[in-house]
Amino acid sequence: MGIKRISNRHLRHGVAFILVGVFMFGSYMVLGVDTLEERMGPAPIAGLTMVAFGIFLLLPGRQILDRPSDFREYYDAIVLAVGIALFVRTFIIEPFKIPSGSMIPTLLVGDYLFVNKLAYGHRVPFTGKRLLFGQGPRRGDIAVFEYPKEPNKDYIKRIIGLPGDRIVYDHKRLFINGTPVAYNVVGPFSYQNERGYEVSAELRVEGLDRAPHNILVQNQMDFVDRRTEEVVPPGHYFVMGDNRDNSNDSRIWGFVPDYRLVGKAVALFWSWDANAASPRWQRVATPVE
């Protein structure tokens, strides 16, 4: 009986599927920190599926990629299209939907935006280390990150504190390294929250470094009026929502580790107002600042 061999085509494709699948899955898993259960989202499952298919192709005697067939024709077209899509989504840019009002007035519930994953580099599979491709996170960036308490959930907030910064938030005033962050009061502001209730607030323009931006405060609320004072540890970031009295952020649960960063929000590509059941055309194709 002859020994069944693995064809060169099966070998190339099988190894490629396994390597890409392991890299995809490993990009979402930090050994010693994450558990398999909390990382089981669509992307990690896609990675494991690719590993399983790669192993299948490497089984001796397989010929499905060697002989002409309808499957092979579809396979070549699908692998190319899906491969390009997965590569772009995993390494370059990814869509993201705003589910809550923590970033109002900058981002509204129902906004859809693109996240630049190259801005903060890419995580080395199964580790907390990152390969940087640019300047990295900067104060004022709007960043998408894995929520440290539940890493299978993505959050979006503004980066306020860099490693080594001393952050104080006291009576709705922000201080960075002992210097108060200047702001101007614009006036009253009202919005409908995700439950459809009207909320009144004060609109301010906060001058954070190179990125002046709008924020909301509710002077009648004291939920987050308690004094927050923290020194950001190495390899971590302090984040806050622009809707200061309606944001679950670093004032409550702590810092974002560097390896939890997903990317920088760059532009809106769609916006849907669920309360009015209509698009917000004026927000489409606008930059995120």
Can you give a write-up of this model?
It is built from four helices and 17 strands. With 289 residues, it is α+β, with helices and mostly antiparallel strands. It has two domains: 85 residues; 186 residues, Ribbon (Umud Fragment, subunit A), CATH 2.10.109. The strands form four sheets. Strands 1, 2, 5, 6, 14, 15, 16 and 17 form an eight-stranded antiparallel β-sheet that branches. Strands 9-8-7-13 form a four-stranded antiparallel β-sheet, with no helix packed on it. A hairpin with a 5-residue loop joins strand 10 and strand 11. Helix 1 runs antiparallel to helix 2. The termini are far apart. The model has no long low-confidence stretch (mean pLDDT 88).
Radius of gyration: 23 Å
N-to-C SSE series?
Answer: HHHEEEEEEEEEEEEEEHEEE
Integer average pLDDT: 88
- The proportion of residues in beta strands is 25-35%
Number of beta strands: 17
Helices, by number, come to: 4
State the major sheet: 8 strands, antiparallel
The assigned CATH architecture of the largest domain is Ribbon
Structural class: alpha+beta
First and last CA, distance? 68 Å
What is the domain tally? 2
If you consult CATH, what is the topology of the largest domain? Umud Fragment, subunit A
Q: Name the shape in a single word.
A: elongated
Instruction: Summarize the amount of helix as a percent range.
Output: 10-25%
Per CATH, the superfamily of the largest domain is: Umud Fragment, subunit A
CATH class of the largest domain: Mainly Beta
Catalogue the unreliable spans: none
